[in-house]
Amino acid sequence: MNRTLLIIILAVGFYSGGICQNADSTVVRKISPGGALLRSAFVPGWGQFYNRKYIKAGIFSIGQNWLAYGIYNNWKDADKYERNFKSATDDPEYQADQFAKYENARDSRNFKMWIMAAAIFYSMFDAYVDAQLADFNQSDRSFEVYIGPGKNDEITVGLTFNIP
Is the separation of the CB atoms in 160 and 144 below 8 Å? Predict the structure, then answer.
């Protein structure tokens, strides 16, 4: 089943790529703000990757996946401590300890879920704004920073100010 699905996905991908490109034409890519927003809503960092902001995409992807992993672990721990709390009826000290651990795991899970919601919203907003500003050409910058190769394998750092 999985092999068939993979073959279908690859076939559709190669087929659609073949019809969309002509060898003699140049393709101008217009970035869709709504597309960037939706991509960012469904997959962490996809909207930033779509906007060609690869460092941001990595940061959002790593951060949101780390939060999801933390939420999963806290949820699992909360369930374990809740089961222990409910099953320990003969030892009140153990029951109180398990209940405290349950509350801590639950609170940590809930806090990470709120942070995750804020991170997803921020990621969506960032992808939308970057897509809106993709074709914005700013030629009158007040300052520029240049970091690049110099003479004799040196790194050159430059800062240019434009005072109006």
Answer: yes
Look up the pTM and report it.
Answer: 0.65
The pair phi, psi for residue 53, each rounded to 5°, is -105, 80
Instruction: Give per-residue pLDDT as tens, 11-46.
Output: 544 444 444 444 445 555 688 889 999 999 999 999
Each residue of 45-57: pLDDT tens digit? 999 999 998 999 9
In sequence order, the β-bridge partners of residue 147 are 157
According to DSSP, residue 89 is labeled -
**In this structure, which amino acid lies at residue 71?**
I
- Using CA atoms of 70, 75, 81, 83 in order, give the dihedral in degrees to the nearest 10: -160
Rounded distance between C-alpha atoms, residue 31 and residue 128, angstroms = 10
